[in-house]
Amino acid sequence: MVSFDPKKKYDEVVSERYDGNYVRALEDFENIAESIIRPKFTEHLERLGRSRRSIDQSWRNRKGRLYEYAVIQALRSMIGQDEKLKSRLSVLGKREIKQSVRDKVAIRNWSKVYPDVDILILDDKENKVIAIISCKTSLRERLTETAYWKYELIKHENTKDVKVLFITTDKDEELQEDVNRYIAMHVIDCTFITDLQKYNKLMSCYKTLYGSREDFNIIKDKIRPFHEIICYLNSIIGD
What we know:
about 240 residues, alpha/beta, Restriction Endonuclease, 2 domains, six-stranded mixed beta sheet, two-stranded antiparallel sheet, 8 strands, globular
């Protein structure tokens, strides 16, 4: 039986329904994943005799990897259209990161300890890592883990300047919770939300609760819509 590849299906959907625009498709990721790809994925595993519980677990794992893929494709598309960045930055997924590059973000303590990385941004001109990215559709404990690595990286000379970013759809609106808001605004370098409607709803919530605070307009920029990541990357490399 022919296997089903969610990534190939995602590419087909982007090509046929979004005119090849990975950035626009990423904004609609939840709909694509749940309404178009999941039914096909489920049908395939049902034909293989898998149980409902097994299928649901497999989908959660595949959806996470699919989101990483969708973010990578969108990032590469955006960087490829930016005159300054396209010849300078490389976007690397987990399996594309060579050992020599991983070593650039290693914490050296008796042995090399590597932070958890979904995506890595490499400055080819300077031969250095400028950002590591964690991306998840929902936060759960992952944002806390990302915050931990930020605290560790800034302690070491070779990693203190590496930006730690979080990318999410915020599908369950978990960034409204105080702990997650604090981490996003005060610990990690920047959080990008790929679902524009979720971003606008979150900002409206924050403005209602905290808009009168003196530092609100400064701190709120630590959480941005995904399309602003190119401006952010340009600010990191300077020149």
